[in-house]
Amino acid sequence: MHKITSIISIKLVNFTLLILLITATQIGYAQAEKKIGDINALKEPSIEEYEQLVFEATQYLLSNPVNEKSAKFVSSSKIVCFWMNQDTGYGIPLGGNFYYKLRNTDNQQYFYAVSIVNYLLDQKINHNRILPCIAIEGETYKHQEDVKEVRLKAAEIFLGFAKKPKNKIKLTIRSKKYLKFYRKGTLNEKFQEELDELPTKKDVASPFITSVRPN
Q: CA spacing 20 to 30 A to 146: which of 117, 128, 131, 201?
């Protein structure tokens, strides 16, 4: 029997956060649209040229509380969402037990996705490492070394963000256990332990469209 790997295809319009963007200030939209327009204006836009801008946007989002009235927050959100919808050469390895333990109601899965982008670009810009997270034929996606690393490191980034009271991230009992392992420095062991466990039907309540294929 084929092992089944869930590959997440991001439809960012489904992110809860975009509900906030609808009511955001016009000035925030203007700033984001100008920067996105700069990319679109190029005849053959190289998304790679904007990686530093996207990285800085993720840094801002992960360093400040959600504030849909902030022009910089809105601008940063739109920049990151735009980048994730482009052909960047990266896969965004959402999925896994940790991901499915996060709630959708207060943008937790969104900030985990932002954490993934942050880690991918940090490794490329600051450490000269490229972690493509693209499915490799003949391998199980979740067993790929790049996928395992990015999911774990992004979880650490997200939990570092979530543990700060000012960010008002209300983890559930099921997701709080990961914070416990994070604080003890044993999150990697927890991820390895759960690697081959399938998420429960109760956990799989995601706004993302999931395509399933044999691997």
A: 201
Structural domain boundaries enclosing 94:
4-206
Query: How many domains in the chain?
Result: 1
Choice between 84 and 215, residue whose per-residue pLDDT is larger? 84
Q: How many Å apart are CA 187 and CA 61, to the nearest integer?
A: 23
In a domain, 212, yes or no: no
Q: What is the pTM of this model?
A: 0.79
Q: What is the pLDDT of residues 6-43, one digit of tens each?
A: 334 443 333 434 434 433 434 455 555 666 566 555 44
Q: Is residue 215 part of a domain?
A: no
Residue 11 domain-assigned? yes
With beta carbons less than 8 A apart as the criterion, state whether 144 and 198 touch: no
Distance CA 100, CA 77 (A): 22
Task: Give the three-class secondary structure for 3.
Answer: coil
Termini Cα distance of the chain: 10
Any domain includes 213: no
* Phi, psi angles (nearest 5°) of residue 169: -95, 115
Residue ranges of the alpha helices (H) in the chain?
17-22, 26-41, 51-61, 71-84, 96-101, 108-127, 145-162, 173-184, 187-194
pLDDT level of residue 211 (50, 70, 90 thresholds) = very low
